[in-house]
């Protein structure tokens, strides 16, 4: 056989024996049911993108009969997602059957590829509930702040034992969740409010006495936090909800000095600058003063992602400043019929955004209702109480409560153009359907009525 032909045949044989690289499955299949939910669409947020890069990515999942879903999408890398208060950790190739309940993440359950990580997350504590203070079996036995470190070390150890028992999860997931629990421990030690709040409610101590006791407790508990803060300069931790709480503690130079902790790295410093500016914008609205702060922040921040966010958000919020045209909205009436915001054009429109679950909203409600009563029959102004509850919850509220004024409802997702990050929020729109202020003063301040009078 020709020597050249022989070598070609051998080479071809060797090449053909090499395995073709397996195609990575990037598809996520998520199907199942959700209860205690009264909408046609389920919204799933990409937590990793939103919390790490301030980039909003919302998956709209169509529901069948407001209960069943079957959703497929592509995912490049493991990512945390959130549906309401339910966390998910999805990795490329996961295929899950999920049973969800809007009342509590602990009621969720999962079966299929990726089930272990997600079933573990059903017991992750709420940082806004004080983290381990939500572990009533342990926290209810705490009598003094000196018992707090040892008590919550048990909560921490319980989480570690559960985590170590997982066999079908990645090491990255284990590391992230171990870190989450460490930060939950620190967060718990900083929430002694829960130790004294019951005494205030019973009238046994005053608010001032509680503040004094908390200050004393925090001084004692600070040193116990150090062993759990041995590793925090990692931007991956930004996707952990509790790290947001801890980050504001860690940026305090006095706190770090006391525990001899290292400075935040540049990225985390710039993240806090960006985050603080965005929060001020979300909750206080756009102003000339804030515009200057945003400009300064964009110049100070070197990370291209954060600098771009500050520039983009300034442009976005300029669309809802005074004098800009109002975006139209569609509301639901109590009888089920629809009406548009633009239908009230020709009047000064005042909107009160509220929900039954919002304590501050309910505190403002009597003041807004007083304004409604005062301007009732005035053809130059329309005061609207606009609920962002589901229609079912909203209707049920008025089965037990008196209907006062013009009561309408809207799906919160329709308020995107108005950048509604929290409630209560009050809008004032002039007779020409232009914005006066969509971060208007609270009715209880008396300044909302002054604003209305200027434009009637």
Describe the structure.
With 456 residues, this protein is of the alpha+beta class. It has four domains: 95 residues, Sandwich (Immunoglobulin-like); 138 residues, no CATH class; 52 residues; 126 residues, Glutaredoxin (3-Layer(aba) Sandwich), CATH 3.40.30.10. α6 crosses α9, α11 packs parallel to α13 and α12 runs antiparallel to α13. The longest helix has 19 residues. The radius of gyration is 27 Å and the shape is globular. The N and C termini lie far apart (102 Å). 28% of the residues are buried. The N terminus is likely disordered.
Write out key terms for the chains shown:
single chain, alpha+beta, five-stranded mixed sheet, disordered N terminus, 4 domains
Secondary-structure map:
Elements: H1 3-17, E1 27-35, E2 41-46, H2 47-53, E3 58-62, E4 68-74, E5 79-83, E6 86-90, E7 95-101, E8 109-113, H3 115-121, H4 136-139, H5 148-164, H6 171-189, H7 193-201, H8 207-221, H9 241-250, H10 253-259, H11 266-284, H12 288-300, H13 304-318, E9 330-332, E10 338-340, E11 348-354, H14 359-374, E12 381-387, H15 391-400, E13 406-409, E14 425-429, E15 435-437, H16 447-455
Parallel strand pairs: 1-7, 11-12, 12-13
Antiparallel strand pairs: 1-4, 2-3, 2-5, 5-6, 7-8, 9-10, 11-14, 14-15
Helix pairs in contact: 5-6, 6-9, 7-8, 11-12, 11-13, 12-13
